[in-house]
Amino acid sequence: MRTIIIILAAFLLMTPGLSTAQMHGGQMHGEGQHMMGGQGMSQGGMQNMEMMNSMMDDMHQMMGQGHMTSAQQGQMQDMMNQMGQMRQQMSGPQNPQMEQQHHRQLQKMQQRWNTMKGQMEHQH
Questions:
Q1: Which of 20, 33, 50, 52 could form a disulfide with 40 if both were Cys (CB 3.0 to 4.6 A apart)?
Q2: What pLDDT, on the 0 to 100 scale, is given for residue 41?
Q3: pTM value?
Q4: Containing domain of residue 111, as a range?
Q5: Is 107 within the bounds of a domain?
Q6: What angle do CA 70, 63, 52 make, to 5 degrees?
Q7: What is the percentage of the chain residues whose pLDDT exceeds 70?
Q8: Distance CA 40, CA 33 (A)
Q9: How far is the C-alpha of 114 from the C-alpha of 60, rounded, in Å?
Q10: Which residue has the higher pLDDT, 40 or 27?
Q11: Is residue 80 part of a domain?
Q12: Per-residue burial over 46-82, b = 16 or more CB atoms within 10 Å of its CB, e = otherwise
């Protein structure tokens, strides 16, 4: 459990510098999108980041409750690893095909996470 918390903390610290408005989907008129070394992030990329941030927040809350089986911890670890790989890819050159692939992966992960969350909530 401690390993997952450490990995989650490292993952959150590695999050590219999103402004508060970007993380919450807001628009800041006149403000440049200063992510990824000066590159602007597309709308699709921002939506993917928001999905990841939302799942990570949920995972953090569930871990704080401490009621996870080792299998659930392993599944969560797998999802965090996948999101870490996506973030690395997102820090490089972007293209619409990659964003769409990430979006599909995140949707599948979100479904998987929702199923896990439901199982954890029914364990108590």
A1: 33
A2: 76
A3: 0.66
A4: 96-124
A5: yes
A6: 105
A7: 67
A8: 5
A9: 14
A10: 40
A11: no
A12: bbbbbbbbebbeebeebbeeeebeeebeebbeebbeb
